């Protein structure tokens, strides 16, 4: 299903890792976008790269639903450097773009370890910021949201692969708890909005037409472990400081910015003793957001409202050692690693059961582990210092 007629999607956190790949995918699918980001963990350069890639895409596949390939970055991607805690700033965005019909909400803080040291900052930005956004959306009658949740809401799950019906627990970190609480907040909002609509309809006389449809549609996407980069090698993850996550850390080892990987524990109850995760290519993940928007459209067209939750993962788990081997293969040499004690809060296995998303969203991860590693390596090799490295031009694929 393609968007009709070109809808405008507000993407919060659109300069970040997943946000920038999603902005590109939205444009390639024929959506218009508006981006809000305070640039606290990203740079505007990511949108310039989106622009470069989009222009190449649109020039090579002309289509009536696509934006003009010759638009400037500012015209193609209206950008607001606004904090989601800044209510007046958000109001301005919706006033300037009354055509916004849905929001994809990525903005927030995401470092698990840091969240244990500064929990109030995490609760403030992630929870207060999101509540602020939801209130402004209500004010402007925009009642469709796709929210970035995380597999961390499952804690240490009783069954692998994990279905969406697995218990949502108080999670392993303040960061994880913000995702749990936000899932509840968004569900509560959807439930209340359906009740409010029923009440309005009850109060109306026969001939009267409801003034506002109060009902919300929300899709909670529980990402497993996003990894990789755009295959062009000009867009990818650009973590500030020393990366917390396995794949960006390995990528920094490969370019010589870091000496060796510490493998956090080899005494887990898994085949090789290291933790198992479900690594998902970021381009597949971006497509999952387009699928979620389309699902909300179908729901609305059928007069159905409420909150849906989906796992976005491949359904296949890999251990830390598997990932070191796969990335070493992409790089062409063995990467140094040493086993160190477990990292507090890690659980042995988080592997998705993605069948609900496969069926309901008509979405399935397409890319292989080797593609994920090759694309990450191309990005890191071409941009050893992330977006500070080089001007954007698309190199020939190797
Ligand atoms: P990211 O840090 O690259 O992107 C988040 C973006 O939000 C950044 O551009 C940052 O500048 C912006 N931002 C942060 N605080 C903001 C604020 N107060 N106001 C406006 N903008 C703000 O992270 P990402 O990896 O792209 O993650 C996107 C979302 O997905 C986050 O909500 C994260 O919690 C969630 N998520 C990520 C992963 C992962 O492994 N990357 C896994 C599960 C869920
Ligand atoms: C993967 C595996 C580590 C680094 C986290 C968040 C989750 C989501 C994604 C985001 C684990 C091991 C890691 C290293 C290692 N969040 N590892 N050495 O912990 O599955 O998920 O990121 O916003 O909510 O919890 O991902 O990449 O940190 O770790 O051995 O230097 O790699 O122990 O088994 P994780 P990760």
TrEMBL record:
Q: Which GO cellular component terms are attached?
A: cytosol
Top-tier EC class: isomerase
GO molecular function annotation = UDP-glucose 4-epimerase activity
**Record EC number:** 5.1.3.2
| Required cofactor(s) | NAD(+)
Offer one Pfam family short name for this entry: Epimerase
What is annotated about its quaternary structure and interactions? Homodimer.
Q: Family per UniProt?
A: In the N-terminal section; belongs to the NAD(P)-dependent epimerase/dehydratase family. Belongs to the NAD(P)-dependent epimerase/dehydratase family.
Q: What organism is recorded for this protein? A: Dissophora globulifera
Domain (NAD-dependent epimerase/dehydratase) ranges: 9-303
Q: Which NCBIfam families match?
A: galE, PRK10675.1
Q: Function of this protein?
A: Mutarotase converts alpha-aldose to the beta-anomer. It is active on D-glucose, L-arabinose, D-xylose, D-galactose, maltose and lactose.
Q: Which domain of life does the protein's organism represent?
A: Eukaryota
Q: Name one GO biological process term.
A: galactose metabolic process
Q: Does the keyword NAD apply?
A: yes
Which reaction is the catalytic activity of this chain? UDP-alpha-D-glucose = UDP-alpha-D-galactose
Question: Which pathway or pathways does this protein act in?
Answer: Carbohydrate metabolism; galactose metabolism; Carbohydrate metabolism; hexose metabolism
What is this protein identified as? UDP-glucose 4-epimerase
Task: Say if the entry is tagged with keyword Transport.
Answer: no
Q: Which UniProt keywords apply?
A: Carbohydrate metabolism, Galactose metabolism, Isomerase, NAD
